[in-house]
Amino acid sequence: MKKSYLALTTLLLILCSLVLVSTTQLGKAQGGTNVNGIITTDTTWTLANSPYTLTGALAVNQGVTLTIQAGVTVNLKNNYLQVNGTLVARGTGTDKIQMSNGTIKFTSLSTSWNDQTNTGSIIENAIMDSAYVEISASSPKLNNDKILAGGIDAIRVERGAPIISNCTIRTSFSGIELYDSHSLITNNVIYDFPPRENYGIMTFYHDEHSIIKNNLILNTDTAICVDYGSTPQIESNTIVENNRGIRIDSQIEISNNNFENNSLNIYLTTNSNINLINNWWGTTDTQAINETIYDFKNDFNLGNVTFTPFLMSPNALAPKASNPELALSPSPTAPEFSGLVIVPLLVSVFTIALVLRYRKTTILKQ
Question: How far apart are CA 266 and CA 108, in angstroms?
Fold first, then answer.
């Protein structure tokens, strides 16, 4: 009887040891991976080896693909990840990729995104906290990302034709800056908090072909700034509660946008006359609309803005104003447990129950 009891006790100790070993192995996996240097072969960053921490600058070679799995955390640590090849970082709606404190740089050598083949460089379903994106003569896709930028531009594009869609961007400087690009900027939410010293979207000289459509821009100093020589297409946006809706220093036409509760809807800085017909100005009172437009009547060195005819009600195809903070709230993540831990735990509990039952039976027999 004593031998049986000793055998059961020994088995219990072995199982407990297995639990400790499994837990130790899990701790090692959760300890993460340090990375730097140059990635020269196709590489996948897995959830099992997350978080990945940059201990220096990191580059993806031309012709090489870095894949980041859903749920992975990337700590840039004030370094940069330079993409000369392909970056595929695709989270899911419930298992987002986390990036923080650094810069993602897409160079002219990086692979462009192709919507038809669903291939190329993409960052999708990621939360980027003080992580910025620089795009230089390249065309990646940023989709459904949540970007919490600090004191510099959240996204800066210089040439190329990137797609930036369905993103929520909170910034204290500029949400998106466009230089000489063919960017598609659509279905994004861009905002800031008072004192509202930032720009939502800025287009600079030679940015003549970008499309800015169906975006919600609110609580900025200037929602959209159209600099001299840039002529983007600005259509069906909702521009709400900004100091200035659109600052215009270029010959441009803007239509089917909703302007509401801005201190000024239009701030002209060019001597050219501007045609801004077919927009909703928050009211049908012509005099009230005119008072929200800064042009020749305010400064004789400026051109005139023509805003009639205008929409008699908001454009239903433009986005509705909403609370962007709700979109930035991270989804709760359930804790993860290794199968190596769960199985020994269950066996241990079962064994303990057997030991207790055996001891009880032994005592009763005595």
Answer: 36
The span from the CA of 195 to the CA of 295, in Å, is: 25
Q: Would you tell me the crossing angle of helices 339-365 and 2-30 to the nearest 10 degrees?
A: 160
What is the per-residue pLDDT across 142-197, written as a single tens digit (0 to 9) for each?
A: 999 999 986 678 999 999 999 999 999 998 788 999 999 999 999 999 998 655 66
| Secondary structure letter of residue 245 according to DSSP | E
Rg (CA), the chain: 28
Model confidence, pTM: 0.81
**Domain spans in the chain, listed from the N-terminal domain onward:** 28-331
- The distance from CA 6 to its chain's CA centroid, rounded to whole angstroms, is 59
User: Region 219-248: what's the mean pLDDT?
Assistant: 95
Tell me which DSSP letter residue 188 carries: -
**Contact between residue 73 and residue 50 where contact means Cβ atoms under 8 Å apart:** yes
Helices (H), 210-317: 286-291
Task: Please give the angle made by the CA atoms of 231, 320 and 70, to the nearest 5 degrees.
Answer: 85
